[in-house]
Amino acid sequence: MALRGILFAVLIGLIGYGAMEALPLLTGPRLTLESPLAYSTSDSGLISISGSARRTETLTLNDGPLLFDENDRFYQDLLLPQGSAILTLTATDRFGRSVTERRTVFIP
User: Fold this and answer.
1) Could you read off the pLDDT of 38-80 as tens digits, one per residue?
2) What CATH code is carried by the domain that includes residue 33?
3) CB within 8 A of 73, min separation 6: which ones?
4) Model confidence over 79-93: pLDDT tens digits?
5) Is residue 1 part of a domain?
6) Whole-number Å distance between alpha carbons of 7 and 28
7) Sign of torsion over alpha carbons 8, 9, 11, 16
């Protein structure tokens, strides 16, 4: 009887562990854009883009590649002309699932 209880506990532990390991595969990529804030302005035209991209195979900024480090962090400075610009970041995982964040910035 005690052996049956131990086997049941081990089985539940294995199922729980498998679910925890499979969770990233099921949830897809995650993109967190820390900067710039929505509707930011910059008198100099220099905009800093930073954030993190977890469970990501590729990261793009306005359809161009954006590199991220081994800690899933990215950072890029852009010099934009006068006017408004829409920055579009897209993170795609190895299964082709993607998530997109957009920010509008103004350069007076």
Assistant:
1) 898 988 889 999 999 999 999 999 999 999 999 999 999 999 9
2) 2.60.40.10
3) 50, 51, 52
4) 999 999 999 999 999
5) no
6) 33
7) positive
